Fold this sequence. Notes:
The protein is α/β, with parallel strands linked by helices. Helix content is 34%, strand content 23%. It has helices spanning 27-39, 52-62, 71-75, 89-101, 116-129, 143-154, 188-204, 296-307, 318-335; strands spanning 19-23, 43-48, 66-68, 82-85, 105-108, 133-135, 160-168, 209-216, 222-230, 236-242, 251-255, 258-262, 272-276, 279-283. Helix 5 packs antiparallel against helix 9.
Amino acid sequence: MTSLPAPNTVPLRGGPTLRWGVLAPGGIANQWVGTTHANTDQRVVAVASRTLSRAEEFAARHGIDTAYGSYEQLVADPAVQAVYIAAPHSEHRALALLAIAAGKHVLIEKPIAVSVAEAEEIVTAARAAGVFAMEAMWTRFLPQTSIVEQLLARGDLGEVLRVTGDFSAKFDFDPTSRAFDPALGGGALLDLGVYPVWFAHFVLGAPRSVTATGSLASTGVDAQSALILDYASAAQSVITTSMILRTPIAATISGTAGRIEFPDEFIGPSSFSLTVGEERTEWTEPTGFRWGEGLCYQAVAVAQHVADGLTESPLHTLDDTLEIMTVLESARKQLGAL
Ligand SMILES: NC(=O)c1ccc[n+]([C@@H]2O[C@H](COP(=O)([O-])OP(=O)(O)OC[C@H]3O[C@@H](n4cnc5c(N)ncnc54)[C@H](OP(=O)(O)O)[C@@H]3O)[C@@H](O)[C@H]2O)c1
């Protein structure tokens, strides 16, 4: 059996902390605050909704001191050091610029924005302001990813020639939902495909070319697609995403000496196998966290980065985010998605 390295993730407790503010108390904000409060020393001190009563209800549920009825009020709160932006993608640019202008560090839900141009605006503003900024690509901060990173660096797989990744989910059709409404940044690629595109980028970097094929929903957003990414080396990635069917959400990395296989739900805390030659080694996810509970890892990583004086995460830089957004944008254009 091949010996596997230990994950070198930031410890969930005992490290530096930030006082967080949350913009937009929707579904993911609820999960993020729940697991971050339950499993780390980070504390959310304020929440803002466009509707005060929603912020008050969220604050009461999570033991948050202050509730605001506008996003502007929260970013003006001197008690808040870092802002977690959890609105639909279409709102990320405006809210990130608002928080950055107020001098706050920002953790922006994926995708960072709906276009390369919007993402560049955020990146430029954050770098000019000298605040910490990161897209909330939480899978990058999970223990499994730390181990895969070390295996790749160790060369266990030889030369990596293929990465595959899928993230699909079945959303009920609602033309006004953020999944299907083009005005809210709808479509599978931005919402789900961003993960396997990140995974391929994490392993192989930016591709030389993107070829996409797929279908649109009746609202004009992309419903399902397959992408082939080609690299300057002989490597290829095959990415699939859909919001009209369920799949195992699997991912693989294959090289000349071995392969890594995530059989299901690789986005969240998950187990994988390493096969080198005929020898197969299983790594079992040790935390027992289910899916969104793993969101807490990125919060402690941000706090550690800020304490270290960084303005970007070396694990998921702003340039990484721009390169991933470039792939998504190219694919969306090829599909003719709105
Ligand atoms: N990391 C993950 O695993 C994960 C999972 C799901 C979603 N996400 C990301 O998180 C973001 C939010 O997704 P969600 O599922 O949490 O959405 P959601 O449940 O619809 O919540 C979004 C919140 O944004 C606020 N908002 C601001 N402007 C809005 C607008 N024009 N239309 C609708 N709502 C608006 C609303 O709160 P108020 O009106 O109260 O301010 C709403 O509750 C998306 O970018 C998505 O990609 C990440």
